[in-house]
Amino acid sequence: MAQLVKLSDYVSRYETDIYRYPSRFVRLKKERWQRILTEWERQEVTSNHNHEKETVKKGKGIWPFKRKVDKEEVTFHPFIKSSTTKTLEEVKEGFQKELHSFKVNWASSTVSEISSVQRKHYYDNLLITLLRDLPDSNLLFYYPAILHKKAPVDLDILLLTPSELWLITPLGGNDKTIYRPQADRFWEKVQGHNQEKILNPVISLKRMRTVMETILLEKNLSVTIKTLILAKDSYIDVSHKRITTIDKRTFTEWKQSLVKNVAPIKHQQLKIAEAILSQTITISRKRQEFVDGTIND
């Protein structure tokens, strides 16, 4: 399950310590799943319905009693309810929802600061798919804002694996949508009888590559950079010699190639993530309890 390192211009826990939080996320995820699974198995073999009623009454998810909760773990949002969970598949589905909410929370807050999150990020299908299906060692930057040569630049998607940096420009649509090149600066988006011009996505990719190469050069870092135009749910009627195009026909194959890379997070990978994060723009505010002075920062 990929980690959401930076989301838009929100404050991120990974910004505060990129060398600590990736491994912390993996540990918390494993511990949370084991507790959920243990509780579900216990409920499967018990006939004590009073416990289920008490759990629902308190409005909690599946949490063992009398356990000290890690302060980082409170950012989990329980979707799993004892009274409604009947199968292991339902448990897994609820856990996936918890994890996505947890990741968005970590990518939009720290212990002392918080950013205003757009609700669309909780339901973004591409974001959910990338975070759910890719390995823990994949670090995702989702539409980050970067300060490049003293000017703000909005990028698309950066996916940093243990061995590569993918620069991704996504295209929306559905199985009735086809993208075709029209001119140097424009593509054509065809959906049924509707046609519209869109800016050539290669332009965005070239801008991202320029920004990333500048950051890596300044920090004396290197990594294999790959560029990708991604239409997960639609079709691309074009081939490009230097840029990979993935659409509905090839998305699963591309995703599986990343899943098969089971290499752990590397120190060089974290240094690159740190370099990128150092150039990102962050907009946040102090949590109210810090403003009120009830907690010392």
Notes on the protein architecture:
The protein has 297 residues and is an alpha/beta fold. Helix content is 36%, strand content 21%. The protein is built from nine helices and 14 strands. It has helices at 13-16, 21-45, 49-57, 88-106, 125-133, 201-218, 251-259, 267-277, 288-291, and strands spanning 3-7, 113-114, 139-142, 145-148, 151-154, 157-160, 164-170, 177-181, 186-191, 194-199, 224-230, 235-236, 244-246, 285-286. The strands form four sheets. The chain has a six-stranded mixed sheet, sandwiched between helices. A four-stranded mixed sheet has the order 10-9-8-12, with no helix packed on it. Helix 2 packs antiparallel against helix 4 (88-106). The longest helix has 25 residues, at 21-45. The radius of gyration is 21 Å and the shape is globular. The two termini are 31 Å apart. Residues 54-69 have low confidence and may be disordered.
Average pLDDT works out at 86
Tell me the distance between the termini.
Answer: 31 Å
Number of helices: 9
Instruction: Decide which structural class fits the backbone.
Output: alpha/beta
Sheet of most strands? 6 strands, mixed
Radius of gyration: 21 Å
Q: Reading side by side through the largest sheet, how are the strands ordered? A: 1-3-6-7-11-13
The helicity comes to 25-40%
**N to C succession of SSEs:** EHHHHEHEEEEEEEEHEEEHHEH
Low-confidence stretches: 54-69
Overall shape? globular
Number of strands: 14
The percentage of residues in β strands lies in 15-25%
